[in-house]
Every structure is written in structure tokens, then in C-alpha cells.
Amino acid sequence: QSVLTQPPSASGTPGQRVTLSCSGSSSNIGRDYVYWYQQLPGAAPKLLIYKSDQRSSGVPDRFSASKSGTSASLAISDVWSEDEADYYCAAWDASLSRLVFGGGTRLTVL
Amino acid sequence: QMQLVQSGSELKKPGASVKVSCKASGYTFTAYPINWVRQAPGQGLEWMGWINTDTGSPTYAQGFTRHFVFSLDTSVSTSYLEISSLKPEDSATYYCAVTPGRQFGASALNPWGQGTLITVSS
User: Fold this and answer.
1) CA separation for the pair A109, A41 (Å, rounded)
2) Which of A13, B96, B104, B118 could form a disulfide with A50 if both were Cys (CB 3.0 to 4.6 A apart)?
3) What's the start-to-end Cα distance of chain B, in Å?
4) What is the pLDDT of residue A1?
């Protein structure tokens, strides 16, 4: 069971806005930055968002993220079929002294 | 640009050891730490720890303190993950990833290596 909680699946149709959630606690999201990673099928993860809301180089502005309290979210506006992937949130957990990941959300574009 | 290239897939028998390499290029190797992340088949990501590429000092996450060892060869800009006494449950894809400086946050992982699949089976 992951320290950060993500819904296992999400879906959207092309052009739709999709929001993925990530829930943590005061020892991780509540006190540190959140990072979002995209893992396309068969590929290594790629950093999408750093410092909770900053897009990594080359990431389209269709991707945005925010954090509030002990939760975070990643929004994809105008979702494309190429956005089909697993999305993971991550944060440093001060109580566990380790980087923790969510279990990942598999996004399907119908 | 910063790049990490890992060694190829391995098939090992239980009890054997394996050493995965992660070669860095495009930046000063000793400037940024390298992390190791495990992904079991069909599962999520699990942070194993990191190694300070300047001092060579490793930090292991809980659960990875027994038969996992991080090491370096700075002369060839390479980090290694050695797993001893392999068990079938060690079968996974192992990734290395750089923490590319504090401007990205202390826990950012970017870029990642392509991953190395380790299969442990008799």
C-alpha cells in the first residue's frame, strides 16, 4: 500500500479536461513539494512537474498542477491520445525519511 | 543534455548476484546525486535510495539495507547497483535517476535511465 494515494484509473475523451488527484499527509505533501511523473507504456518515467506546480522543460502547457494542504492534483486540459500513460505523484516523507510515490493512475483516452 | 544509460537485461538464478550500471553523460557527474528506483512487474515505483556522487556516500531506504549496494566509478561517470543473494521477488525493472539541482527541488528525479530488467528464476 502506497503512502500517497492515487486513484488507480482515470479516463477522458480527446479534448476533455482530466484531473488526477494525489492524497498524502502532513509528513509528506503537507510539508514538502510534490512531483509528478509520466510513464508511457514500456518507457521510463519522465518528470512532468517539479516543486508542486512547475512544468519541466518541454512539457506542454496543457499540463498544470497544484497543491493544497495534504493533497495535490495534476490537470491535463485538451487531453490527447498520446497522453495515455501511468501518472505518479511523489514527495519526500519526513517521518519515513524517504521519497514516497503514489500507486499511480492509469489514464485512458477513450 | 543530461543522459543516463543503463546496462542490459539480466536473467539470474536465485542466490546469485547482479551488478547494474548507470553511465552518465552531458554534465559533471559529481555535481548531482543519483537515485535508484525499483518497479516490480505491473507495479508502481519504489525509491531505493541515493548515492552522493561527490563523496560516494550511499543512503538506503528502509527495506533496501540488506543485499543492495550502491557504488560509483567517477573515472567513467558511472554508478552501480549491486544486488546479492537474489530472490525471485527481486525480479523488477531497476531505474537510476539524477536529482538535477536544488532549483528543481531536493527530490526531483530527472532524467531517468532507460531501466534494467532483472529476472530471477531457477
Assistant:
1) 13
2) B104
3) 40
4) 84
